[in-house]
Specification:
The complex is a heterodimer of chains A (about 270) and B (about 350). By secondary structure, chain A is of the alpha/beta class. Chain A has two domains: about 90 residues, Elongation Factor Tu (Ef-tu), domain 3, CATH 2.40.30.10; about 130 residues, 3-Layer(aba) Sandwich (Rossmann fold), CATH 3.40.50. In chain A, about 15% of the residues lie in helices and about 30% in strands. Chain A has five helices and 16 strands. In chain A, helix 4 runs parallel beside helix 5. The mean pLDDT of chain A is about 95. Chain B is of the alpha+beta class. Chain B has two domains: about 160 residues, no CATH class; about 130 residues, no CATH class. The interface between A and B is large, with 45 and 58 residues.
Chain lengths: ~270, ~350
């Protein structure tokens, strides 16, 4: 009989990228002929043997689905253990789980990606996808905010996006910082200042709960309808498959019915 | 044609003892005045309660602590799945509300994209021989939840107590096979039909419950609740669980363990963010999950009316009473008596 879905499979840490003072990214390699066919927005459950399991967004997927990335902010017990891991170490993974960003339905539209801090992590596969299928989409705009210059993730990607003439990139930090000559101000304010128009556009927003809430408010003020604003939600999860009970918003489970929702699909209090 | 067979009182013990040769047999035992299922020891006295058994059958299908994988603590990775196992078993003496609880667990664990194969194995190895209730206990209210105390739905075989013995009937092939015994005699008798009382804990509709999300009543209700979570342990349909690693003397186990939505740690994430920090938000989540969300998810509310949550509640208030109180409030609101309260900002 097949094993219970909750038992993870081993993956090898192929490479570790130091992203910021408390975030590391891991390039994970599936074992044998194993695949991780994750679509943009899906997540995985990652295990460190003896320490348990937690939920992470897939932040990059290789074309052959044999490698994928996660980004881990050191914040609790398991993430501390992950930060101690080295290339070559074996950890566990199961998934991919959840729904995904409906990127195919967005063809022909401009895409506005709005990320706050580690919130950029689940959005990066959408950027990758749009860049891979450039002809199918209109303009790509990226708003990315971090608390301080030290908290900026994906520096290599940001450089590439900055140099790409087809991308409008707006980088900002929350408060002034010595040596920072770029934009200053929290993401919702930047969104308002940029006066991003909703016509022919889709926006995807992810960041700390408070950032999502105020960014959504800023977009609505700019007359964005709820069904054109997408977000990916996070709540405490254990199973990832709609059985352990805890990640519900009303009758919906974030792990199964989400994590991707347009704002017309969730009640206001969910933000 | 009558399908009921009769067995003498004195023969029940012999019948069940004979079953233990091939099966693991579970029967109700009375321990300090409370009924609980346990594995039958051949020759022990056998008795059945007239109504609900205090401890639900949940643990037999979805154990409190369930190893799903093992590993060697000294290795970096040696996690091996635990294979489902166990000999065929028979549970004798469960009631219609127990069946309703199992049917709800089936919806969660079996009617899922990722079927729980360990749960499926526990279900597959078990034959259910139910007993028709002969009375409704103090907190029973299955008749308010669409059940009948003497219904046989979902059982493999059923039996009823009569003055001079038992009447038994096979309902499925498995059940009929178990009842093939020298102790059963064909008769013309059938169990008495009863008119069962209803109305103890009538509740509003799922739609009406959903409309109460923003009401201030959750604060009032959480004021009379300790959020101790014992009702979720007793409930036959509360199946929330944690997945965690337990290390002991070098041997590690990955286990699922029962968890409770009433505990503060239930939704707390690394870093401290908690989407249901206040008792009010947790009481609301559980109440709406039982009476509304479950209906929206599975087309069936997840209260079976067994009343176990009332029996175990340290304040003896518990769920159906809170539900009934909420139902009163819904009625009042409709009549325009009450003002809408401040909204809790939590999920």
């Amino acid at each position: 009989m097949a094993a219970i879905e909750l038992v993870p499979k081993p993956v090898t840490i192929k490479r570790i990228i130091e992203e910021s003072r408390d975030v590391k990214s891991y390039v994970l390699q599936m074992s044998g002929s194993g695949k991780m066919p994750a679509r943009p927005g899906q997540f995985v459950e990652v295990s460190v043997q003896g320490y348990g399991e937690a939920t992470f967004a897939v932040t990059r997927i290789s074309k052959d689905n044999q490698e994928f990335n996660i980004s881990v902010k050191r914040i609790g017990h398991l993430t501390k253990m992950l930060h101690r891991a080295a290339p070559g170490d074996i950890i566990g993974v199961r998934g991919p789980y959840g729904n995904s960003f409906p990127v195919d339905e967005w063809k022909g539209k401009d895409i506005v990606v709005i990320g706050g801090g580690i919130g950029l992590a689940p959005l990066r596969p959408v950027i990758d996808y749009v860049l891979e299928h450039r002809k199918d989409y209109g303009k790509l705009e990226i708003v990315f905010g971090a608390r301080a210059p030290d908290d900026i993730l994906y520096k290599e990607d940001l450089r590439i996006w900055e140099d790409d003439k087809g991308i409008s990139l707006y980088k900002t930090i929350d408060v002034p910082f010595e040596g920072w000559s770029g934009r200053v101000g929290v993401v919702p304010i930047v969104v308002k200042d940029l006066a991003l128009k909703p016509d022919g556009k889709i926006s995807i927003v992810c960041g700390p709960p408070i950032m999502i809430k105020f960014t959504a408010a800023a977009l609505r003020e700019l007359r964005w309808p709820n069904d054109k604003i997408f977000t990916t939600l996070e709540m405490k999860m254990q199973c990832g498959i709609g059985q352990c009970g805890r990640c519900n918003i009303g009758e919906k489970f974030i792990c199964k019915d989400g994590p991707v929702f347009s704002l017309d699909q969730i009640p206001e209090h969910a933000l | 044609m009558n399908k009921w067979y009769k067995m003498k009182h004195a023969d029940m013990q012999k019948f069940v003892s004979a079953l233990t040769e091939k099966w693991e047999v579970w029967v109700p035992y009375r321990i300090d005045g409370k009924w609980e299922f346990g594995i039958y020891d051949t020759g022990r006295d056998l008795d059945f309660p007239e109504s609900v058994i205090h401890v639900s059958l949940k643990n037999l299908f979805f154990p409190k602590r369930r190893p799903i994988a093992t590993y060697d603590e000294n290795s970096k990775w040696s996690l091996k799945p635990v294979e489902p196992e166990g000999k065929p078993r028979i549970v004798i003496g469960l009631h219609p509300c127990d069946v309703a609880g199992i049917e709800y667990m089936d919806k969660v664990f079996l009617q899922s994209e990722h079927k729980d194969v360990m749960y499926a194995s526990e279900r597959k190895r078990t034959v259910l021989i139910g007993m028709l209730c002969s009375e409704m206990a103090d907190n029973c209210h299955c008749t308010d939840r669409g059940l009948t105390p003497d219904a046989t739905r979902g059982m493999d075989a059923a039996f009823a107590r009569i003055t001079d013995g038992y009447l038994l009937k096979g309902l499925t092939d498995k059940g009929k096979q178990v009842l093939r015994s020298e102790y059963l005699k064909k008769v013309d008798e059938v169990p008495d039909k009863k008119d069962w009382p209803a109305g103890r804990y009538v509740i509003a509709s799922p739609e009406e419950f959903m409309e109460m999300y923003d009401d201030k009543i959750w604060h009032e209700m959480s004021d009379i609740c300790l959020t101790c979570g014992i009702c979720t342990y007793a409930c036959p349909t509360c199946v929330c669980f944690l997945v965690t690693d337990e290390n002991f003397k070098g041997k590690g186990e990955r286990v699922t363990v029962w968890d409770s939505c009433q505990l503060q740690s239930y939704s707390r994430m690394a870093g401290g963010h908690n989407t249901r920090k206040t008792p009010a938000s947790r009481v609301r989540n559980r109440t709406l999950d039982k009476f509304a969300y479950s209906h929206l998810r599975y087309g069936q509310i997840s209260c079976t009316g067994c009343g176990r949550c009332v029996m175990v509640c340290p304040l003896k208030r518990s769920f159906p009473q809170l539900g009934a109180r909420l139902t009163e409030r819904i009625k009042d609101k409709k009549k325009g008596k009450s003002k809408s309260g401040a909204r809790s900002k939590e999920a």
